[in-house]
Design brief:
Length: 417
């Protein structure tokens, strides 16, 4: 009898394993999270999916702020070999959906009650013609200033709250033998810096007219000229090795105290965390100069591509559900430096930077100063973003180009459709 029971248990266990295997699928996931903090965040998603019995096929494409990944994705989709999920965001989601290559995941969204737990402004971006085609991962604030407390103490300077104070602090850091501004000379990083400068100089209404509405009068106006002049002045406080430097290496300069400040989104915080640094003690997180009451948002999301294999489709749906789960939202965003996209999340485990970000996200949403990041492709179609980005980066790198000339190039780029 004992032998019979052991045999029956063995048969049941084998059947259970076979049942899991039968429903297990593979998800190939295209993303560009390759730096320290980002890689940890991606590993958390992989572990969540593997716990459901599925196989994760990593498809990481580094560099370019996602530009390189999009180039690879286009070639894959054109050849009829799309991954299960790809990191796509903003208006680009609608463009991919219009091509008829994205899957409808309304069944997952209804089961998980996404409409009830997502801010409407975010939910709308994840839909095409009223149907969910992507799962949002997080909310990044782009308009951050990161400062080394050790560097500022050595320089006897204070963390700036406006652009006049920024240049005073930069001078003090320079005199103390510290690189004032850590910068990576890549076009998306140049544009990220400019975005924060423009918001700080002109305010949220100016920003919306210029970079969301693409208003020609605003793009050609005096405030834009001042923003460009301020932007170019920032460059004088960067080091000669900046060209081509990856953003996380610039962050490392601040972490080590080699540089005093960096203008970068809150994914930089993931690098500080990975290095064991604490906000308040080792570094300061503050809104970029002049932008304390505004919030430029960047929402990472995964678009789900149409698949044919039933097991892989189920794995894809499980991936979408996992992305929006409270456990994953907490683990992922603690590693990534961002804040959960779900409303009413418990932020007890999050640091003061994240809590400030969350409070400002809600407050700016109510005040009308919550604005989409143009550089991170949340505001206008990718073609327009790319054209303006090229103009901004050209101005940054050409010491002979005047602000007026740059302004004309930006205004012209905004007309691209």
């Amino acid at each position: 009898m004992k032998a019979m029971k052991l045999f029956q248990r063995s048969i049941l266990a084998t059947a259970a394993v076979m049942a899991v295997a039968a429903h297990a699928g593979e998800v190939e996931v295209l993303h560009w999270w390759t730096s320290g903090g980002e890689a940890k965040a991606a590993a958390a998603l992989k572990a969540t999916l593997q716990a459901k019995g599925h196989t994760w096929k990593d498809f990481a494409v580094a560099g370019g702020g996602g530009d390189n990944a999009m180039t690879v994705l286009k070639s894959r989709v054109v050849s009829g070999n799309a991954p299960a999920a790809a990191q796509i965001k903003g208006p680009a989601l609608q463009e991919w959906a219009a091509e008829g290559v994205l899957a409808n995941i309304d069944d997952v969204a209804k089961a998980e009650k996404w409409d009830a737990v997502l801010p409407p402004v975010v939910a709308n971006v994840m839909k095409y013609k009223g149907n969910y085609i992507a799962a949002p991962v997080n909310v990044h604030r782009v308009n951050w200033l990161w400062a080394s407390n050790a560097a500022f103490k050595k320089a006897g300077a204070k963390v700036p709250t406006n652009w006049d104070e920024f240049f005073v602090a930069a001078e003090a850091l320079k005199k103390a033998g510290i690189i004032p501004v850590a910068h990576g000379g890549q076009n998306w990083q140049d544009f990220t810096t400019f975005e924060s400068v423009a918001l700080g100089v002109g305010g949220a209404e100016f920003y919306k007219k210029a970079f969301v509405q693409l208003d020609q009068a605003t793009l050609n106006g005096a405030t834009m000229t001042k923003a460009l002049e301020t932007f170019k002045k920032v460059k004088t406080y960067t080091d000669k090795n900046a060209p081509g430097r990856d953003w996380n290496l610039a962050t490392a300069m601040v972490i080590k105290g080699e540089a005093g400040m960096q203008l970068m989104g809150d994914w930089a915080k993931g690098e500080f965390a990975a290095a064991g640094k604490m906000p308040g003690k080792d570094y300061t997180c503050a809104a970029a100069p002049g932008t304390a009451k505004s919030f430029t948002f960047n929402v990472d999301s995964f678009a789900m591509f149409k698949l044919k294999d039933a097991a892989n489709i189920q794995a894809q749906k499980d991936l979408a559900a996992a992305i929006m789960s409270t456990d994953f939202q907490e683990v992922f965003n603690l590693n990534k430096g961002s804040i959960p996209v779900r409303l009413n999340m418990n932020l007890a485990k999050f640091d003061d930077c994240a809590k400030l970000s969350s409070n400002d996200f809600v407050a700016s949403g109510k005040s009308g100063s919550l604005v989409p990041s143009i550089v991170h492709q949340m505001a206008v179609p990718p073609a327009v973003t790319g054209a303006i980005q090229d103009a901004v980066s050209q101005f940054w790198n050409d010491d002979k180009m005047s602000a007026k000339d740059a302004q004309a190039k930006i205004a012209s780029a905004a007309k691209i459709r």
